[in-house]
């Protein structure tokens, strides 16, 4: 049977509905607020947009059907999330933004029946938002997860957690947190980590200052969060004790890909705005868009968009097959993260002075896209992992040849 | 129905057979002759390798089944051709090298019944080779096909052709030529071109000097060919008069993609040789392959290979759907052409002094790969076409918006 | 006599004084205000900083000695301006920011005795600021100066000017404007342009909205300015009628180089902050700054800084010799503009999450540096000019060879 | 006193003489032999060209005046060597090729009076050629000099040397060798190395196979050389025992810069050929050289040439001041090595099909230029050294700040 890359007609229709919804309803909200979702209304705006998305039948396309979602697999999410990401407010509108989308994904895979009820259901339906508390300030767990310092110690009936996190997306206003804490070993060696669930109002949780990052479209900010003698009962352990690193991988692969999807939309918008601009503007005896150096930028954007999309599809397909897809997701994440910055940068350049101004949205979109090369593993860490696996394969092949 | 990127098991098996055949039989021939197929025996070697490939059941996988081929579509050709291209002699061995492979493809689509018998059958079975005589020396048709100067004039019962071609791959020893000649308009404007078929021994055809290019793996060289009052009867017109540019597009899209497939194999080999090298060699207190800057090169090679493969698949799928796929093939060709040079260059660098020597095959493979950024349309021409279409779409959208 | 690249000891001492002044006094002001000079106090702050710089003997090092400046040539300005630019407030503090610095330079070359008194003297001493009104919104003069639309028509005793400008740096609060207006020909052809001087409070001059660009360190913003029947008497014509394009070149070459100098300081700061960070931070079993991929970024920054500085010196030297130095200034501007963005980007990446936050100054410095690839001629226009001259030289050589 | 970058008129005249000599006499010899100096006659041709260069008064411009050279410092060598390098045979013609030029330089600094007579005099005058035997096959001293394995052991009246070298440039036909051998410590740690002088016909020296590298312009090849119980008397120790690494640095800094000079000429030639081509050739309704994407390549070549030249001048000046200039030479070497490959690659691309053929010299010049990124320390090793020094400076500054 020949390979077929065409999406099911139902998915194609969903994409078109999402495109229309974003273009007509969401994009104007984003532009009116210069892309700052907090300034635009934060959670109040979110609820309003969510209600509208529900009415359109496009809310939470990734969530399990039992909770009112559309249950799309990764491959089918790709074009829908891209369409949503065309506005930086789109993912919040459809409730498919980070970290909620990844948390729904992970809870759907790992949560106990009780936890599905207590945590997943309100999250999937948009009743509450959530936080994923893993990253720590130096010298804790950043790019290197083995440096994990937040400590959970066994106490009667549960665990007591102490530690400091930062860059916790969506923390302000979150209903609950998934917390990664060390339950074995010492910072620097791998040892064991465990994931815990805790309502945000549990004593011992303090959401601190928002780190003022250059992206403004993630609801609830990127916050510092402190745990002081936070008690988590055994029933709120997510999955098994000491298996946190493994679950983190379960979450991170798909979460990386949904980042690639959403920001693909934003990168596409940069390109569209720039091509529209150079198609109208005259100079040097003709249309700017007909000048060779401009054409080169247009073409390179098209190539970068196409390659990002193609690598994304491949990685999603591997994930849908149930594979770890460590290589495929690292490759897609690294390429796309860098491609999006290139696309935004070329788009700015095509628009000249307006490109570096707020008269066009490209400069601020460029600020939304830049952090992706750092978030969810900097490019350097992914390259390191890709190379280690390649060298590992070579050593194995050498050993096999030597064994003959 | 979810998207599925997996090849049919029969294709997977064909790929594995091809890989084994290339590794065990073809690669040693290539290496023993430093990749120079003429020095290695030229057509004698080709016949020998073809016989072997037939015996293995992997000969001409792209050719129509009626002529003994396997009738693979473009998507399925991709991994098979890549496996063949792992040796630069592999495409000749399987009879899927340029220009024969593209000529088979075009004749299968356009040739009359009689022409199928006279030209396609012996070509598909490897009885003869062929040439595609389109490119001309300056100021004729090179990157800009509209500059076509070779002239065909109507005479009794057929056409008389005069002109000069160059870079005609495989001309030396070819059994027949497909000739592109102007039948309407003047050089510089589009006008009309027509394709003609002519046995190589027809009076008026002279194969001149081999242009000494840096690639050495294409059988029959890149030659100058002159037509002096060459007579072609009406029966040997390929398709319709004045439709040559259109047919050229039919040929060029798929032909570009099979270039991408074959050279992907060669690029993969550069990478494999380099990773093998840095996995063995020690320096700076450890294994070279564990140094960060080497890891970066390894990872970038992996990314470039994956992106080339993903873009290729997308373009092949569009072609299989019967679309022109002008954008998709231009994008895949441009990206891959440049990626292969990067891969070869990084692979050289990883191997240091040996990388720039004949002790490893990378330096000469780099010479095989470099011309791909020029052949079949330089990157600049493809970028120009990609950009023109993007600007065209923007103008159309502007007009549609204005019409509202 | 051998070439000597060492600056005079007096210049070296001036550089050291400037470095100390910037580090101890200016940088804290910048950082306390997140680099926004308007928020920091605008002209009030400027006067305060200027007084301090005067007290240190480092004020206006480029201005003619007769007006209290130090009269440095271009070559000697380079390290002083770089030292000032280490803080984005530094150029304002020393009164060497755009556009005043370039306006002083141009007036010193072209102004009549009366104009020197009326305009140059108060500008050079920092009593007033100035604007350079050349750039126009589409379809007027942007990258393509020939598109100039602002019109000056001859009236009794002077000229009447009508037109619209934008991106006029420093317009808000400027004491006077240098205005470029068409006095011959039509928009699109070259024709003639003339430069006019006009006090900012002359009837007919309206400073409109500030264009909200991503850079925040230029005092007086980037504004829209409208001229409605603005009358300029003959005495306030700067230089000769119809010679405006030529004078613009006189101004633009050096003005480009002082941009390169100032922003070199800001790029250097990005690098210093990043190297300091990776020299402290641990991860992956060692210091981040010892990881190969980080080392690559550090080294590439060092290379980019050194090359920018070396190209700058060469261009300045040519200008000091009295040459047009069109090639040298275009090359230095293009290379440096792009290098600074690369440096800022790598510096962000080295600092990970903090790199994309306001906890470190790199992200906002990156926003200051980005527009330089657009301001003062986008890279594409400079490349176009460089290439045209190279092709011109080749044609000339061909003609000379043919004439033999 | 203002900085002056102009060369002394005598140097300017020497450059012009060299340009004329190369253009009229040397270049035709190179082109007639496709750049292969061995095929062109090897040492016979060298003697012939040397005699001619002597007659022109341009022979050995770097050699001490006492031996008939012109005694130029590094800064003045730069334009002369560039002019010579415009032909790949030029450096041999002027006797300023590797390794002789670097060996003359080092002997002039370190050799004893007797050694000046015995080794330096015949070398400087071109009576003999020489080899510099440092690099070893894996696991010996390659990019990592500490891996040195060739061993010298104290014997009565001198030293006995055993070991294997490779990539020894000019070994075939050399009159003597400078040999780097370990006299203290073990492979992997630094320990001590010593330099020895030995006539090529000393028993125990065997020049083995030529490694078949892609560059063909260095006389005497890149050879394997073996030392079997080679006896070197104390009088032929070059400098002090155990000081070899220090002397190697003395040689390597300047030797790197003269590589940068010579290959700058070859890179310039690539560019000149390409610009000449695109200035003549028509296509797409105009001259190729007027197309935007071609203009971009032309401009980028001009920028790369200018930046290489500017960094070279800076590094040479530091060396002339007697500084180690480790950073400056590493930066110039790394940037130029990579720039030359980019220049050659763009030049090929501009010339399309002819660019990848032997009809133009660019493709083979590209092969001459590629190894420079590996020879004399690969780019990665230089970047590593640059970064280590930058981090070292940061640590020092942190310590100084902490000490306050």
Automatic annotation (TrEMBL), chains A, B, C, D:
It comes from Gordonia amicalis. GO terms for molecular function: acyl-CoA dehydrogenase activity; flavin adenine dinucleotide binding. Homodimer. The lineage of its organism: Bacteria, Bacillati, Actinomycetota, Actinomycetes, Mycobacteriales. GO terms for biological process: fatty acid beta-oxidation using acyl-CoA dehydrogenase. InterPro entries: Acyl-CoA_dehydrogenase (IPR050741), Acyl-CoA_DH_CS (IPR006089), Acyl-CoA_Oxase/DH_mid-dom (IPR006091), Acyl-CoA_Oxase/DH_mid-dom_sf (IPR046373), AcylCo_DH-like_C (IPR036250), AcylCo_DH/oxidase_C (IPR009075), AcylCoA_DH/ox_N (IPR013786), AcylCoA_DH/ox_N_sf (IPR037069). This is Acyl-CoA dehydrogenase family protein. The keyword Flavoprotein applies. GO terms for cellular component: cytoplasm. Belongs to the acyl-CoA dehydrogenase family. Residues 131-229 form the Acyl-CoA oxidase/dehydrogenase middle domain. Residues 13-127 form the Acyl-CoA dehydrogenase/oxidase N-terminal domain. It comes from the Bacteria. Residues 243-390 form the Acyl-CoA dehydrogenase/oxidase C-terminal domain. Its cofactor is FAD. Keywords: FAD, Flavoprotein, Oxidoreductase. PROSITE patterns: ACYL_COA_DH_2.
